[in-house]
Amino acid sequence: MSLSRRLSDALVWALCGLALLLVIIPTVDIIVGIVVQSAPSWSWKLLTTPTHGVAGGLQNAILGTIVLIVGTVVVAGFVGVLGGIYLAELSGQRTGALLRFFSEVLAGIPSIVIGYVGYVALVITLGWGFSMLAGVLALSIMIMPYIMKTTEASFRQIPNTYREAYVALGLPRVVGLQKVLLPPAIPGVLTGLVVALAIAMGETAPLIYTAGWTNALPPHQLTHQPIAYLTYVVWAYTNQPFAQSHALANSAALSLIILLLVLILASRLMSWQSRRFTTRMQA
Asked: Which domains can be identified in the chain, with CATH numbers?
């Protein structure tokens, strides 16, 4: 290898390292700042007391966030994964191109626009009011294109020999998809699902228009009752001129980070189990 080639390679790697540092350093600074600022007010009482006024705890917001994320997993995960499988394995060329086009358009719509459309269509027109179901549908519509895209990519990376194997065995397509193609695709699908849910967990605008806000715990009905969530506390309480509200906003941000870490660890565990299962099946 010539000297100029080595120098150019070293320059490219140096620029890549610099770009990585420019991303990592602000992220670490933000996380450390949140931990330091929220540590004095972090307590068990904070996690078990509902919000009231500009003070109180985060019990209602934490439980509401978990409920919204679980609902979003059920709706967006089910539709997005099935849509990705259809695009990768079942759709024709024209149909697939049309669906990908609409999916990419939907992915490019700002979240606040999705929230406003959800407000007009679900809260006002259907008369659901600010509710858990309206918030779940708004978040699901927002992240569904990401799940479809990563699911399709995960299935397309599977070698064609897998497909030829289940066809040669005479297995129906549904059985082949479930038993042969799905296990090796699960790690990629879970990664895409976690990234999409991380986006949903950090959103405020769609939920302000659809889920509203309440100091109460999550309701038992899907509609006509607002629900609390952590991003509202971060957004609204930071602007309050009170030290208690600022401490609550910082604690809500730390709670979001912890929930995200738990989500990532759970997905890694499921991916590890899936890889073990795939290895045993291939053996």
From this structure: 43-282 (1.10.3720.10)
**Six-digit token pair at 186?**
């699960």
pTM recorded for the entire structure: 0.85
Question: What does the mean pLDDT of the chain come to?
Answer: 86
CA 151 to chain centre: 14
Selection from 32, 78, 38, 83 nearest residue 58 by Cα: 38
158 vs 152: CA distance, rounded Å: 10
| Backbone φ, ψ for residue 227 (5° rounding) | -140, 150
User: What is the tens place of the pLDDT at every residue in 213-253?
Assistant: 988 888 888 888 999 999 999 888 888 888 888 888 888 88
Residue for token pair 């990664």: 191
CA-CA distance, 81 to 88, in Å (whole number)? 11
Residue with tokens 């010539």: 2
Own/partner pairs for 18-25, CB < 8 Å, 24+ apart? none
| SS3 (DSSP) at 50 | coil
Which secondary structure element, helix H or strand E, spans residue 56, and what is its range? strand 55-56
With 0-12 / 13-18 / 19 or more C-beta atoms within 10 angstroms meaning exposed / middle / buried, residue 256 is buried
| 216 sits in which H/E element | none
Q: Are 51 and 215 in contact (CB under 8 A)?
A: yes
